[in-house]
Amino acid sequence: MQKNNKTRWNHFNSIEALRHGVCDAIVKSAQQAIAQRGRFSIVLAGGNTPRAVYRLLRDLPKIDFVDWAKWHIYHGDERCLPPNHEDRNSLMVEQVWLDYVNIPSNQVHDIPAELGPVAGAKAYTETLNAVPTFDLVLLGLGEDGHTASLFPNHAIDNSADAVPVFNSPKPPAERITISQNRLNNTHEVIFIVTGAGKQEAVNNWRKGVNIPATLITPENGVDVYCYEVELN
């Protein structure tokens, strides 16, 4: 049974429909934020499904409804690897999307994870301290219920906007993540959940089990976009 009435579950019949649904939601959120606040601040997720969504954003028709100059880009988490490492979320986003659109470079805020978890988290916290409430946060869901780099059975550190992660159960062991409290400081959240391997995590979430994804409870609730999982 769904315990949180602010969690809105959306099931898609194909991966293509989900990708386009997320893309459309991002564009709508951007239009509303720019109209209301003059800027659009989005926190990105890593992974293959978000990668495909970013390609759709890249390929949007070059017309006036996307005002790239007012977009501000952030990342939910990052691996402590060199900036040009193929497993960096920031590199993936650059290669599939940002290199093709006119978002000013000073509005793209990568996590400096190459500095190591402690120094990198401190530097990103300083960046985020100047940022108002996010407009949209994109998140994924791991088979173990993790989201960003908030993992099960790890102490949740809310001491700052960005915090170090050690001993991650997924390699590499050292990461940086935006904290639970800062991820909740947003107008909208979309979880992107694809693959039958996520079924147990989804079941636990809907039953009210305390997995890390359930820590994300912004005032306006969250939307979960699902494919290949059953919403029983």
Q: How would you describe this structure in keywords?
A:
single chain, about 230 residues, alpha/beta, Rossmann fold, six-stranded parallel beta sheet, three-stranded antiparallel beta sheet, 6 helices, 9 strands, about 30% helix
SSE layout:
Layout: E1 7-11, H1 15-37, E2 40-44, H2 48-58, E3 71-75, E4 77-79, H3 89-96, H4 117-129, E5 134-140, E6 162-165, E7 175-178, H5 180-183, E8 186-194, H6 199-207, E9 222-227
Parallel strand pairs: 1-9, 2-3, 2-5, 5-8, 8-9
Antiparallel strand pairs: 4-7, 6-7
Helix pairs in contact: 1-2
Task: Write up this protein.
The chain has six helices and nine strands, in the order βαβαββααβββαβαβ. The termini are close together. It is globular and about 45 Å long. The longest helix has 23 residues, at 15-37. The chain has a six-stranded parallel β-sheet, covered by helices on one side. It has a single domain (7-215), classed as Rossmann fold. The chain has helices spanning 15-37, 48-58, 89-96, 117-129, 180-183, 199-207; strands spanning 7-11, 40-44, 71-75, 77-79, 134-140, 162-165, 175-178, 186-194, 222-227. The chain is an alpha/beta fold and 232 residues long. The chain is 29% helix and 21% strand.
